[in-house]
Design goal:
Shape: globular
Strand order of the largest sheet: 1-2
Radius of gyration: 23 Å
């Protein structure tokens, strides 16, 4: 027994062909969806709606929200400036050791975020090799500052942009750049006038995903930047603190993060679908 799914395709003569899935597929699919959706629904039910506005507009909540947005946008910009060229190198170059380089780039995806924060602390801390140089030469102390939040978020978010953009570059191929080169365009002109417009949907999707990941970053931030209100306390850190002494506030702020994440995902998926069409 099978059930027809909603997606359809066109036959060779223009007739509509319905795809079908075997019924055993639907049972684990429903369970998987419930595993994701039910906890979110439970969060909505648990929210103290009469006091919701007051809970999400406290000084600490507004400071954390503003800091999260500010650092998230800054880290996303860094991901674009640094991760964009990196994705281009991974997708279009033939340098030796490319698989190893790609594995290193993807490392933050599999590392526990707190481990990433500790690696940054060991590198840029007061006793770290680079941290000592920055402190001695420029008097700069990176850990436990807003800049440390941006660095931690960039560390964990950049692979999302690189993976998305590299996939878009590989899917697009190099035929348009080859045509541009035969018409006399320089590599930089071809990159600016051909490559970037072609992969723009993937670039935007990767940027949105990087922003969403930066907005929800917790482990690397608390290990490298600490938890100082107005300086390094982002929304996830505030939620963690409130979960210990103000559960209603933690639930309310968690719902704010869920709403932002849903909006980001919807925006990304909408653009992906429109790009496919």
């Amino acid at each position: 027994m099978t059930r027809a799914v909603t997606r359809t395709g066109r036959g060779s003569r223009g007739s509509t062909v319905s795809l079908a899935l075997p019924w055993p597929v639907w049972v684990p699919a429903v369970v998987a969806f419930g595993l994701i959706a039910v906890p979110v629904a439970g969060l909505i039910v648990r929210t103290d709606w009469p006091n919701f506005a007051a809970l999400v507009t406290t000084d600490a909540a507004l400071d954390a929200l503003w800091l999260s947005l500010k650092t998230g946008l800054t880290s996303t910009a860094l991901c674009l400036v640094l991760g964009g060229p990196l994705a281009l190198v991974l997708a279009r170059s033939n340098i030796p050791g490319l698989p190893f380089l790609r594995s290193v780039v993807l490392l933050p995806l599999v590392l526990p975020p707190v481990v990433g924060g500790l690696t940054l602390l060991f590198l840029l801390g007061r006793t770290g090799p680079l941290g000592q140089l920055l402190n001695a030469w420029f008097g700069i102390t990176v850990p436990f500052s807003t800049e440390a939040v941006v660095i931690a978020q960039t560390f964990v978010a950049m692979p999302f942009l690189v993976v998305s953009l590299e996939g878009a570059l590989r899917t697009a191929g190099e035929r348009y750049e080859v045509v541009a080169a035969t018409l006399g365009a320089s590599p930089l002109t071809a990159l600016r006038r051909v490559t970037i417009p072609v992969v723009l949907p993937g670039l935007i999707s990767g940027s949105v995903l990087a922003f969403a990941r930066a907005l929800g970053e917790f482990g690397a931030t608390i290990a490298f930047a600490g938890n100082l209100q107005g300086t390094t306390q982002t929304l996830p850190l505030l939620i963690y603190i409130q979960s210990q002494n103000d559960l209603d506030g933690a639930v309310a702020m968690s719902l704010v993060l869920v709403v932002v994440a849903v909006l980001v995902i919807v925006a990304t998926r909408t653009r992906d679908v429109s790009g496919v069409r």
